[in-house]
Amino acid sequence: MGKLYDELCKDYRFKEGMKTCINCGTCTAICPAAEFYRYDPRKILDTVQRKDDEDILALLKSETIWYCGECMSCLTRCPRKNGAGLVIMALRNLSIKLGYFTESEKGRQIYPLTKALTGNVLNLGYCVHPSTYRYEDHPESGPVFEWVLEHKEDVYKRLGANYAGEGPGILRAIPQKDLDELKAIFDETGGTERIESVEKFSEKKAEEMGMSLDEYKAYTFTHCSRGHFNNEQETL
Amino acid sequence: MIYQGKQKIWSDYQKDIPDDHWFYVRSCIRQSFFPGSEKFFMKIVRDDLGKDIYETEHHTTCGGIAYHCDTIPQETAMTIVARQFALMTEAGYENLVASCITSFGNYCETIETWREFPELEARVREHLWKACRREFKVPKYVAHASDLVYKFRNEIAARAKFRLVDHETGEPLRIVEHIGCHYSKMFPHKGVGGAEYPCVLSGMAEAWGGEVIDYPERRHCCGFGFRQYLVRANRGYSLSNTHKKFESMEPYHPDCIITNCPGCPFFLDRWQYVISEMEGKTYGQDGHGIPVLTYEELAALVLGYDPWDMGLQIHQVGLEPLLDKMGVPYDPSKKYLGLNEKEIMKPGLPTVLKCC
Ligand code: SF4
Ligand code: SF4
């Protein structure tokens, strides 16, 4: 048993999700990620249960652990009550903690995700909010949402929201005192440390790739090499 | 009543949902994309049904999307959840109702993990005390907002002004329902009907006169996938999964799709627009899409509220074909008015998809 395996064992998602895998492949059969990506949760669980640190290290640096959508469809169907999605969460957690996430294209996306989501949570008290949802980043939201975003105040208030207002209600401004509590929770529970270490590892990788951190953020958010999907010839 | 066969199995999966006194926690996604749904949920439950449902301005995101995008540690997510529980406890409530499936899953995961690993609950209690000086009781009951609408579906049916029936032919409308993965795939016993017979939405649709379509990919994920949608480079995953569902439901000619999670209706609506732009293909009648609704919107329509008050105009797929079938009146000239009927510009039109 290796050190990385020991680290995984400390994660409650791993304790919940990794019992004994009988390699039946049910998780892969039901998995929406496996259908399109070069992804096989059965193989990942089998690799992890071999407890070989070299193989686990390869996983932590791999593209494959980032393909899962955390839908948890696998959890319902596994005959041994494993949760491939939960094991993936533990693997991703360790990959981020140890900085291996910057070794893969999909792993590097943790930087723009962290910036956007923890930024929204700490600054606004929301994970997603119209004030930071940019149409340029979301052309799929359609002309109707471009219109909504251009007329935020009017449209949200017309629909009964207390947009950026005081007191309770839809899209209210969350009081600063409550945002301060969220920040204190992040400081206390390792959330802030996580943000700082993602930033540190990403800075290093950006430098290696010859980019400024802003360029790196834009690039990792938009760039998709060929070779991730089942129907592509290329390999990564 | 004596239940037999499938009905008997269904009865085993029923949840005993408390009748009253709820602490409400909002959804970031529902507020951003379907704000009218939260407004009408409160209106229906509080004003029409006379229930006690409480909200405080001090609650925040549950952190669920940040958590499932792997950007915050598990203990951070759990302590945010614990803070919501503390606000509930301080307000004197024991039943928590969440407006979001991701939140519902997050609350259930937190409580179930604590049940199995009490030392983790103790640690989170300590975190919350140190960070916020707050204490909490674990909710006696956690519901998703649709559980309440499901529970009161027959009361809503008794007040219905419109039914899910073609008002010209009298035929029931064909309804596709999508319950969202985190409602019952993680903790099947927490959802009405479990993972095998989820009936939270089909129960509503049937109570209001519709006929539920069973199609091959009924339980397939909508394709959100958290990072798989939020990162632009990954959105092919999200689109491909939703496309798979449309192709599977198309032969059954659904009149509408109803959804449980606040994210799913966004994807089921917007990817129809994207597929129409990419491939010229539409899934509804005569170049329209298949209308997609939240369950709150559906309940509000059945109760006779104005479609533009609930925000049906901020869907990309036009809802008019459904309104016409149900016989719901609407004023097209008021569709895109702003606050106090102020004239604001109208949205642009898609190239292919007919929107009204
Ligand atoms: S379904 Fe469960 S037992 Fe079967 S391969 Fe997947 S994890 Fe292993
Ligand atoms: S949680 Fe991940 S591994 Fe499991 S079915 Fe969903 S996408 Fe596949």
Mean pLDDT of chain A: 97
When the domains of chain B are counted, the total is 2
Can you count the beta strands of chain A? 0
Structural class of chain B: alpha/beta
The major pleated sheet of chain B works out as:
4 strands, parallel
- Reading the helices and strands of chain B in chain order gives HEHHEHHEHHEHHEHHEHHEHEHH
The strand count of chain B comes to 8
Give the class of chain A from helix and strand content and strand pairing: mainly alpha
Side by side, the strands of the main sheet of chain B go 2-1-3-4
| Count of individual helical segments of chain A | 15
Helicity level of chain B, as a percent range?
40-55%
Low-confidence stretches of chain A: none
Average pLDDT level of chain B: 94
Return the CATH class of the largest domain in chain B. Alpha Beta
What does this structure look like?
The complex is a heterodimer of chains A (236) and B (356). Chain A is an all-alpha fold and 236 residues long. Chain A has two domains: 3-98, Alpha-helical ferredoxin (Fumarate Reductase Iron-sulfur Protein, Chain B, domain 2, Orthogonal Bundle); 108-222, no CATH class. Chain A contains 15 helices and no strands. Chain A has helices at residues 3-9, 12-17, 26-30, 32-36, 41-49, 53-60, 73-77, 84-98, 105-108, 110-124, 142-150, 152-158, 176-189, 191-208, 213-222. The model of chain A has no long low-confidence stretch (mean pLDDT 97). Chain B folds into two domains: 17-145, Up-down Bundle (Glutathione S-transferase Yfyf (Class Pi), Chain A, domain 2), CATH 1.20.1050.140; 161-341, Rossmann fold. Chain B has 16 helices and eight strands. In chain B, the strands form two sheets. Chain B has a four-stranded parallel β-sheet, sandwiched between helices. Chain B has a four-stranded parallel β-sheet with strand order 6-5-7-8, sandwiched between helices. The longest helix of chain B has 17 residues, at 74-90. In chain B, helix 3 crosses helix 15. The radius of gyration of chain B is 20 Å and the shape is globular. The mean pLDDT of chain B is 94. Chain B has 356 residues and is of the alpha/beta class. In chain B, helix 14 links the parallel strand 7 and strand 8. At the A-B interface, helix 2, helix 4, helix 7, helix 8 and helix 10 of A face helix 2, helix 3, helix 4, helix 5 and helix 6 of B. Bound molecules: iron/sulfur cluster (2 copies). Residues 27, 30-33, 41, 68-74, 84-85, 88 of chain A line the site of one iron/sulfur cluster (SF4).
